[in-house]
Amino acid sequence: MLSAALANAERGFHIFPLHTYSKVPAITDWENRASRDPDRIRAWWTRGPALNVAVACGPSRLLVLDLDAASRHAETELRTAREGRDSLAALAVRHRQSIPVPTFCVATPSGGYHLYYRADRFPQLRNTIGLLGPRLDTRASGGYVVAVGSRLQHGHYQVLDPREPIGLPGWLAALMTLSPPTEPIRGENRPHHRDAYVRAALANQAARVRAASPGTRHRTLLLAANSLGRLVGQGILARHDAQAALYDAAATHIGIERFTHAEAERTITDGLDYAAQRIAFLA
Predict the structure, then answer these.
(1) What is the pLDDT of residues 186-197, one digit of tens each?
(2) 191-210 and 239-250 are packed helices; what angle lies between their axes, rounded to 10 degrees?
(3) Is it the case that residue 74 has pLDDT exceeding 90?
(4) In this structure, are residues 85 and 132 in contact, taking their beta carbons and an 8 Å threshold?
(5) Helix 217-233 vs helix 261-282: angle between axes, to the nearest 10 degrees?
(6) What are the tens digits of pLDDT across the range 133-181?
(7) What is the dihedral of CA 178, 135, 167, 143, to 10 degrees?
(8) What was the pLDDT predicted at 177?
(9) So what's the pLDDT on residue 70?
C-alpha cells in the first residue's frame, strides 16, 4: 500500500493511513496530520504496510461528490430510492446545468463513485449528507474519502478517469452554501446548540462502549452505533466521525475474549447502516 499512498500524494493530495481493509482512521487528529511528505508517508506505512489510504479533503483543497449505489438491503428500496449518479443527473437538469464531468473519478467497491473537484475558491464548504439529493453526499473541509488503491473485504478503489480534478462549478458550490431547514434538537436548532449536542452524543456513546462489561461488548457497541446512526441519518453528524469515535472506544476491548478489529468494524457498520436507513425510510 506504500506505493498507493505515495501515488496519491504525488497527485497533490494530503493523505493519512486507515486501518487495514477499513475506512477508519489509524491515527488521531488526522486532518491536521495529513501529509504529502514522502518521509512521513514511508514512516506510516513502514509500521503498517497493509494500511489503507485516505485523502483529507480540506488540506487537499478538494470537494468530493460521493455518489452511492443503491443498497440491495435498504428499506428505502421499497420506495423510490435512486443511485447517486441519477440524483446528480436530475440535479443538473433541474438547475439547467451540465453534469460536472469529466473529472478525476474513482469507483468504490460498493458500486458507487467519487468525483473529485478543486475547491480552492470555496474553503467554507463542509460535508453534507443528502443535501443535494438522495445518495448524493459531499466531503470537503472536515471530511475525507478512502483513496484509490485501498482495499476493503469486498473489493478495492480504482481509478475510472485519471485526469486532474476540475474546478468545482459555482452553481454546485452555491447549493451547498444554502442553509437547509433543520429539525429542533432539544428545543434548539441554532448551530452552537446542535454542535454541543452532537459532541455530547459522541462522548456519551464512546464512554458507554468503553465501560461495557464482558459478554455485553457486541450489543453495547451495536446500540451505540444505532444511536449515533440516527444523527448520521438526520445529516447532523458525519458518518466517519461516528465511525472513528466508536472504533477508538471499541479498541479498548480488542484482543479480549476473541473480540477482533473485524468484529468491531462490522458491528459499527451494521448499527450505523440500520439507523440511517430507518431515518431515510421514515422521512
Answers:
(1) 333 344 455 677
(2) 30
(3) no
(4) no
(5) 40
(6) 888 889 999 889 999 999 998 899 999 999 999 999 999 999 887 544 3
(7) 80
(8) 77
(9) 64
Residue 131: Cβ-neighbour burial (10 angstroms; 0-12, 13-18, 19+):
middle
- Per-residue pLDDT band for 183 (boundaries 50, 70, 90) equals very low
Q: Can the peptide bond before residue 102 be classed as cis, meaning omega within 30 degrees of 0? A: yes
Give the C-alpha separation, 189 to 169, whole Å.
30
Asked if 58 and 140 count as a contact pair (C-beta separation under 8 A), the reply is yes
Q: Do the bridges between strand 155-156 and strand 151-152 make them parallel or antiparallel, or are there none, so unpaired? A: antiparallel
Return the pLDDT at 118: 97
Q: Distance between CA atoms of 227 and 216, rounded to whole angstroms?
A: 16
| Separation between Cα atoms, residue 225 and residue 232, nearest integer Å | 10
Element (H, E) at 54: strand 52-56
CB within 8 Å of 187: residues ≥ 6 apart: none
Give residue 38's Cα distance to chain centre.
25
Cell numbers representing residue 232 in the block: 448520521
